[in-house]
Specification:
Strand order of the largest sheet of chain A: 2-1-3
Distance between the termini of chain B: 26 Å
CATH topology of chain A: Mth169, Chain: A
Strand content of chain B: 15-25%
CATH architecture of chain B: 3-Layer(aba) Sandwich
Shape of chain B: globular
Order of helices and strands of chain A: EHEHE
Low-confidence stretches of chain B: none
Number of domains of chain B: 1
Largest sheet of chain B: 9 strands, mixed
CATH class of chain B: Alpha Beta
Low-confidence stretches of chain A: none
CATH class of chain A: Alpha Beta
Structural class of chain B: alpha/beta
Oligomer: heterodimer
Strand order of the largest sheet of chain B: 2-1-3-4-11-10-9-6-7
Chain lengths: ~90, ~230
């Protein structure tokens, strides 16, 4: 078994309103940030998984996303696998 | 013997005694059920009350869904037992896929704690059984993530199958179709954001919640819970 690190980024699906992102975007001009748009809020998780290879690690994290880390009704996730890592 | 209503207590639940006091004031018996239990005992109905189950970490209801008691609640519902999720309990029921859709943050990112004006849309549910369609009720809401959402297909299905039980008049949180509460196809599983248990004693301003909880008690008294899934 090899240890892989994973980054899971969760964001609201396209079409689902993101009041937090919209509020942040609206505040930007007042703070002197011009020309910033398309702000979307979300959350990120970092985790380590033991798996035989990268594909198996990805499958495990995808499953974890589908069943627990995201609510597929309103959220999407993007998974990045790093590794194998030394531990 | 009056109906026995089980009230599930997750770590972080905070409306369990309000629910028990309300249903006992209405003539039924209430009993707490710990989330770690794997049985519901002899309950005629189950309420998942409001609060912040498991701290609402990750998403409201996301972790509560995996509490041991939920397998028993799902089994009870499949056998026809009445299950009502109030506020956080509604969030748990959607996360457990016992009801469709999801509750997202309120439009405008405002925590809402106020009386809400509701309209009964159907009497075909455990919580509106025998209540006349069109009845107006004033029941408090108290939530940040109460903005019900679902895809177009689900919304059409909910409407076609007469499964929207309560609508806001007017809509305080941006929920799709002004939805305040829904039910499953059989009508025995109900989720709603308003808190009927907080509108039973005249002291708290409205007694309209008693209309809904009395309907649940009536429904529970005659619900036929089968030994195996239907």
């Amino acid at each position: 078994m090899t240890r892989f690190e994973a980054l899971v980024e969760v964001q609201l699906r396209a079409g689902i309103s993101d009041p937090q992102g919209a509020t942040i975007e609206k505040a930007l001009p007042a703070l002197g940030f011009a020309g910033v748009s398309e702000v979307r809020s979300g959350k990120a998780f970092r985790l380590a998984v033991e798996a035989t290879d990268e594909e198996a690690a990805r499958q495990q994290v995808d499953d974890l996303c589908r069943r627990f880390l995201t609510n597929p009704v309103i959220e999407d996730s993007a998974v990045t696998i790093f590794g194998p890592s030394c531990s | 013997m009056s109906a026995l209503i089980g009230v599930v207590l997750f770590p972080g639940t905070n409306c369990e005694y309000d629910v028990i006091e309300a249903i006992e004031a209405l003539g039924a018996r209430g009993q707490l059920i710990w989330h770690g239990d794997s049985s519901l005992g002899a309950c005629d109905a189950v309420v998942l009350p409001g609060g912040f189950a498991h701290g609402d970490y990750l998403r409201p209801g996301a972790i509560a869904r995996f509490s041991p008691v939920m397998a028993a609640v799902e089994d009870f519902a499949r056998r026809g037992g009445p299950v009502v999720g109030i506020c956080n309990g509604f969030q748990v029921l959607t996360e457990a896929h016992m009801l469709p859709g999801a509750l997202q943050k309120n439009r405008g990112l405002t925590f809402l704690c106020q009386p809400a004006e509701l309209e009964v849309v159907t009497s075909r549910s455990a919580l509106t059984d025998g209540v006349e369609v069109g009845t107006r009720l004033t029941v408090p809401i108290n939530h940040f993530e109460g903005n019900y959402t679902c895809d177009e297909r689900t919304l059409t299905q909910l409407r076609d199958e007469d499964r929207v039980i309560l609508r806001y008049r007017p809509n305080p949180n941006g929920s799709v179709g002004d939805i305040a509460g829904i039910t499953n196809q059989e009508g025995n599983v109900v989720g709603l954001m308003p808190h009927p248990e907080r509108a039973v004693d005249p002291l708290t301003g409205s007694t309209d919640g008693a209309v809904l909880l009395s309907a649940l008690i009536r429904y529970a008294s005659r619900a036929v819970v089968t030994a195996t899934a239907r």
